[in-house]
Amino acid sequence: MTTASSAEPTRRDFLFVATGAAAAVGGVVTLWPFISQMNPDASTIAAGAPIEVDLAPIASGQDIKVFWRGKPIYIMNRTKKQVDEARAVPVASLPDPATDQSRVKEGHDQWLVVIGICTHLGCIPIAHEGNYDGFFCPCHGSQYDSSGRIRQGPAPANLPVPPYQFVSDSKIQIG
């Protein structure tokens, strides 16, 4: 009896390849949930994972609002006029005394980063409003200057400054 070896693929060869491919796809589909469950969930990320913000698109005099830990964060690129006005205010005249220099990072005086929650009752103030070119809380009339310091109204304290650092000249990390 002689057996002939054929170089052409047979139906059996196709079935072996198809079965192997189906097993590989099934293995990947089975492993995917186990691998993806190792990533932190959205609540963990929202609870305090640091975020990076690119400052390059923010023009002088503009601000943006981002969210960190579920709180609105205002990042303001202040003009030289705003910085000079904030520094000219006598600190003793403020309800919650703080210098402008203590609220910004050295060498980055034009960048103000504050948590955008009014210290009176937790409303969200509006940027570039009010008498001091800073923030105005429409709920009860609190007004903050361009350094986020309370100047007028029922709010007892300045807008808080979150923990942040400059990663580069055009990028910060909050948290």
- Please state the structural category: alpha+beta
SSE ordering: HHEEEHEEEEEEE
End-to-end CA span: 79 Å
Q: Write down the overall geometry.
A: elongated
- What would you give as the CATH superfamily of the largest domain? Rieske [2Fe-2S] iron-sulphur domain
Mean pLDDT: 89
Name of the CATH first level of the largest domain: Mainly Beta
> Could you say how many structural domains there are in total?
2
Q: How many strands in all?
A: 10
How would you characterize the overall build of this protein?
The protein has 2 domains: 9-39; 44-174, Rieske Iron-sulfur Protein (3-layer Sandwich). 23% of the residues lie in helices and 25% in strands. The protein has helices at 11-36, 42-46, 80-88; strands at residues 51-54, 63-68, 71-77, 111-115, 126-129, 134-136, 143-144, 150-152, 164-168, 171-174. Strands 5-6-7-8 form a 4-stranded antiparallel β-sheet, with no helix packed on it. A 3-stranded antiparallel β-sheet has the order 1-10-9, with no helix packed on it. Strands 2-3-4 form a 3-stranded antiparallel β-sheet, with no helix packed on it. The protein is elongated. The termini are far apart. The model has no long low-confidence stretch (mean pLDDT 89).
